[in-house]
Each structure stands twice: as structure tokens, then as C-alpha cells.
Amino acid sequence: MAEVSIIVPVYNAAKFIKETVASITAQTFTDWELLLVENGSTDSTPEILEGFTDERIKVIRMGTNSGAAKARNRGMELAEGRFVTYLDADDLWKPEKLEKQLAFMKQKEVAFSFTGYEFADENAKPLGVVVKVPEVLVYKKALKNTTIFTSTVMFDTAQIDKSKLMMPAVPSEDTALWWSVLRSGFDAYGLDENLVYYRRPGKSLSSNKFIACKRIWNLYRKQEKLGLIYSCYNFAGWAMRAVLRRL
Questions:
Q1: Distance between CA atoms of 151 and 110, rounded to whole angstroms?
Q2: What is the pTM of this model?
């Protein structure tokens, strides 16, 4: 049984998935399993996934596109590792990512961690914009600081039951999960090292600023059920930090 399970939801990722998987197989830490959750792709992604021969790589087929949340949840259900981490199908890890993050979590004996990262263009060329992360985030601070990026997160399922790590079927499901875990009493600890490349294709959802704002606002009001004034306060903090991260 591998010590670390890596969950990657895959949908129409033929352009990127080989490079993403290569960044995993290049890890200096080798005791991992990779769960590629194929989510009903209509391009050549399924054929590409069949070509991976590393025994640590497992392809899980969802049949139809049921969204990233359900794909990640299916991966969580099947994950055998004590530590579970995520990687989006178009992002990349630096070779030492798993080794450094796992050592960080064990040293500090924490259940929830995240790392710094750098923005990259569609061709995975680093843009020089590195996001630094705080030492620790608690629930109230995280509401106005969405620094936690999916491809940097790692959980210790010996401390947090996997039933509490299921993403809700809402827009910005990843942020909703982080807040849920933090609200339940766990803190998130930041490893302030740039270990991930966040690729931003021109047509990505996150590039649509209006949609991003609407998703966060709905999380405040509908998911967290915050009052109007408190939602506005947190939204202002979120918007300011979102702008600063891209400068």
C-alpha cells in the first residue's frame, strides 16, 4: 500500500496530461499511487491514459462527465494512502514537491497542509509570479484569503476521516471543502516554498473574473450562510488578495 495517494480528475486533458503525469513520475519521493479519474472525455484522453505503464498509476472511469467534485470524491473513496493530495490535470509539480511536503507534515504533525506555487502560461512556462503562503490559516482568516490552491493541498487521513473530505457539488468545490475542514476545527499549515506550477490556459474558468467573483460570493451566502455585511467584509479581503497574487 502506497503512503501517498494522488487524485487527478481528468476531462479532455489530452494536451496536458502526459506532462502532468511526467511531473509525478519524476518525484523524488516514490511511494505513491496515482488515481487518474477519467471523467467522460470526448477527446483522445482515454487512449492516452491507456498508454501509461507505471504500475503505480490507476485509471478510474466515471463513464460520463459528472464534474470535478464527484471525480475527486471517487478518487478519495478509492485512495489507499494515508496521505492524500490533489493535482489538476493541467498543472505540474516540481520534483521535490511530495518529499518536502510530506516531511513538513510529519515534522509538524499536522492534518492539512498547502504550499506556495507559481503561475505559468499555457505552455507551462513560468511567469515569475510566485504566490507566497502564510504559516497557518484558520477558518475566519481563510474566508478572506483563498491562497490555498488545489494542486498544493495534502491531507492526513489518519487525522481527518475521509468522510469529511468529500467535496460538495457546488462551484468552487475545492474552496468549499477547505472552509468545511477549517470550520470543523482543523487549521491549514502553509509550506512557503514554490513547489507547483499553476498553468492558466486562456479559456480556463478561473480566467473569467466575473464568474470567479460570483462563485466566491455564493459560497459565502449559500454554503457558509454568512450574513450580508460579513460576506461583504470577507469578499473585499478576498478580492484584494486575488489581485495582489497576480501582480
A1: 18
A2: 0.93
